[in-house]
């Protein structure tokens, strides 16, 4: 996957949340100086070759920038600052994290497989694992549906936004 950074001094202000457009384009602010990070997942048939981590600059120009500018007109005048490519690694069973105690190994707790939405889920996942370790149960949020049992039972937890 490609991630791009750009500068747009007239872009959305500090109160702008992480935004995922209905087209799949996403962005967030990167600091307080009019800098942003963003990207978009390509359709499965257009996934880049995983053995090549070079960035295709045409992808930004042809695919991402038009969607960003349609969503945020100020992005018409953005200036790309950089880019990088990386792997989109995830739990291939259902693309959701696996959280909680292992079903066979006593005293092994998991918080893995979240990939792209791991950073978004990390505060809740960390708190949940801490509660399991310290109290032996979930207290704040019942996250049992993210547990190992769904893998053992072959019952995927589908999420439309992934």
TrEMBL record:
The entry's keywords: Oxidoreductase
Keyword Transcription annotated: no
Domain FAD dependent oxidoreductase: 14-132
Transmembrane is among the record's keywords: no
An example molecular function term from Gene Ontology annotations: oxidoreductase activity
GO cellular component: mitochondrion
GO BP of this protein: mitochondrial respiratory chain complex I assembly
Highest rank taxon of the organism: Eukaryota
Function recorded in the entry: Required for the assembly of the mitochondrial membrane respiratory chain NADH dehydrogenase (Complex I). Involved in mid-late stages of complex I assembly.
Name of the molecule in the record: FAD-dependent oxidoreductase domain-containing protein 1
Organism (species): Neodrepanis coruscans
Gene (name only): Foxred1
